[in-house]
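hey
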């Protein structure tokens, strides 16, 4: 296998469309169906909460600020459970069985959303969606890192954030324009398709080697690397912003429809992730993370200054400015903080502790997500949107300094050791 890997590395290409990488690409696209589903489930929330607070449409119950904060934040607790549970199961039952299990919580969640009679149904549904999301952030990056050639690993890993961003956009659009009871019937199709498609791909070579299944590992390696016969003979604030975008735009006083602004943000997020996917294997992970953290801090600062100091006349004349600033924030976030964090975590950890380490890292992230989603609407109501933006700026500055001082570049790193 070492000889095969060296031969393949000698003819590597940066294009993920290279014929030698087609099975890696197909497998990556397949697992991203569950990421896409998770994105829809995430984007669905913001316009839906806005409707439930203002339109009094189905389902027939109203939500308080506290209930809204729990609906948002229980996602984080579910994600924490998903991080831990799938982190434990990855090395016990394998990557493939964990991939199958990812679909079950989100399928149950959408049935609960359809039959919701009280806010408790939404509590449980968001918790289940969080389990799938938390497991997704552990299972999918490790699966892709173990099947991908080093020359395209960054692009394939960034594809996760592209599909997440696309899913969030679809979720924004569906929950804005479709009836509450239509959404579950459409969305549940995607995890079902994912379950069927996932059966077509073998377990990763690294996991099979850990289980001492040498022959199966060799066949898996040849499948994913598309080895021809000749070679065969001879490798947190941002979650809160996404979930509460409609409310944020409503607080700025802009007369542009908040849900329309939210949809625009979804489009921008896709462009940012595409940009990251194109350049990541050329410029490296660290450069993108620095640009992302610095740009996001600048955007949050600008947004906070606008909200705090702009007069009523300025807000009336320049009501488009919040949309422009938040567009910049979402783009900056998408090129690094969203697109590359999971890639860097997997590439930094050695193979012996990769599953446990990724699980621990994602569990810590889920705790932060829970705190951010729980406190965001309450802090916005108590301290104002401007001070909240300045707080987000401080967090981004700390992240920028950490990446600058401590993070080592992982571009092209071999993950077999």
């Amino acid at each position: 296998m070492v000889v095969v890997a060296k031969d393949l590395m000698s003819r590597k290409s940066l294009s993920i469309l290279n014929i030698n990488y087609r099975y890696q690409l197909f497998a990556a696209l397949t697992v991203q169906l569950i990421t896409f589903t998770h994105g829809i489930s995430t984007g669905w929330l913001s316009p839906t909460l806005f409707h439930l607070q203002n339109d009094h449409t189905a389902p027939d119950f109203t939500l308080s600020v506290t209930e809204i904060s729990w609906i948002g934040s229980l996602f984080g607790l579910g994600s924490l459970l998903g991080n831990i549970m799938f982190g434990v199961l990855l090395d016990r039952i394998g990557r493939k069985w964990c991939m199958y299990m990812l679909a079950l919580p989100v399928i149950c969640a959408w049935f609960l959303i359809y039959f919701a009679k009280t806010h408790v149904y939404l509590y449980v549904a968001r918790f289940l969606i969080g389990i799938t999301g938390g497991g997704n952030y552990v299972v999918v990056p490790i699966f892709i890192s173990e099947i991908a050639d080093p020359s395209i690993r960054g692009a394939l890993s960034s594809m996760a954030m592209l599909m997440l961003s696309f899913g969030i956009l679809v979720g924004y659009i569906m929950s804005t324009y479709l009836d509450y009871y239509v959404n579950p019937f459409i969305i549940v199709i995607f995890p079902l398709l994912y379950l069927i498609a996932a059966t077509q791909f073998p377990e990763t070579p690294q996991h099979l080697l850990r289980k001492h299944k040498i022959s199966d590992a060799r066949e898996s390696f040849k499948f994913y690397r598309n080895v021809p016969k000749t070679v065969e003979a001879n490798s947190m604030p941002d979650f809160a912003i996404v979930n509460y975008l409609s409310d944020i735009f409503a607080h700025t006083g802009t007369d542009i429809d908040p849900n329309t602004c939210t949809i625009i943000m979804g489009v921008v997020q896709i462009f940012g992730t595409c940009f990251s996917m194109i350049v990541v294997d050329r410029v490296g992970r660290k450069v993108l993370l620095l640009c992302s953290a610095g740009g996001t801090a600048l955007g949050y600062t600008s947004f906070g200054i606008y909200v705090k100091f702009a007069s009523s006349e300025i807000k009336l004349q320049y009501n488009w400015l919040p949309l422009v600033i938040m567009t910049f924030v979402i783009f900056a976030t998408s090129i690094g903080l969203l697109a590359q964090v999971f890639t860097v975590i997997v590439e930094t950890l050695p193979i012996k502790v990769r599953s446990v380490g990724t699980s621990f890292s994602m569990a810590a992230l889920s705790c932060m997500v829970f705190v951010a989603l729980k406190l965001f609407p309450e802090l916005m109501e108590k301290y104002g949107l401007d001070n909240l933006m300045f707080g987000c700026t401080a967090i981004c500055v700390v992240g920028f300094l950490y990446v600058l001082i401590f993070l080592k570049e992982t571009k092209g790193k071999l993950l077999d050791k």
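The radius of gyration is 22 Å. Residues 18-201+236-406 form a domain with the Growth Hormone; Chain: A; fold (CATH 1.20.1250.20).
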